[in-house]
Write a structure and sequence with these properties.
There is one protein chain. The protein is an alpha+beta fold. It is built from 8 helices and 6 strands; from the N terminus they run H-E-E-H-E-H-E-E-E-H-H-H-H-H. Helix 5 runs antiparallel to helix 6. It is elongated and about 110 Å long.
Amino acid sequence: MSGDRNRRIALCAYGSAYLAGRIVMEDWYRHGLFSQVAMQFRVAVSGQLLAGDFVQWLLCLRQRGAQRLHMAEAEELGLDDRKCAGGIVVCFSDSSELWACYPEPTEAALPEDGPAHSPWAAELDCYWLQAGPMTAPPLMQVDWPALRSQAESALEEKMAYGAVKPGDGAAAPYMPTSAGEWADWQRLPLVPFGAGNAAGHGLLSALHEKEAGFRNYAHPKNDSSDYWLLDEDARAAWEAWHAELEVWRRRVEIALANACVEKGIACESVPMAQPTAEVAELTEPATPVGKRAVLPGLMAVAVLLSLIVGAGYLIWRFSAR
């Protein structure tokens, strides 16, 4: 699962909770998924930059009265999935608008007085506001037990060598696979965690475990695996099962991204710890304390001393007369 897709899921789920007033920005904007990426929100027709990061974008949407976000795949939107990575539908009370995820802007896509190329050294996500209104997709309540049963049945049908069920999964928030690389205060669930979607978190965790197990089973370096002793038809059956597994992982991810958590918070069982002083020094914009800050201070002190000395000299001369 790519980082870009993870970010869309988290942005959709946490953004909707923020727009609904269930969480505040400070509860989740430090999420590790957004720590090493630049995000831009542009107008598709002109290339005009409307927001330089997702915080600006969400604040503008909230001021405009946006109520929730809906994640959609390119196929659902009728877009070419070879070029578009999907998008986010912003729902208002009486209208909706689509922000499609396309590659970063090129020179031809920017105004004539804009930069010729992207200055970002980090990864860049671009969302383009499409022309024309959209029909707001309905907010569906997810029946997680039913969805689990459907996933199990579909995976069993694709498996020719015995039933392979996802299992129960842990009753804990599903964490992105890269969470171990982040600081403690950046480790948040992929989407808000609450009683209403705990079963969805468990199902996604179980599907992820199965996917990780298959990748290990079929990895070329794992030459002792039975996978490489199978004939071509048997391996093709495994690959078909894996493809079906990926389909269900995407369905569960989208369901979690679009589900409404009745009292959603950043995480109930893994509270976010505030960064320590040492971490803050490394991650927050530094306060000028070097030569640029010391030199103006010394100059101000020198000027003040000069004024004091000059005033004292004038007083002494006046008194002497």
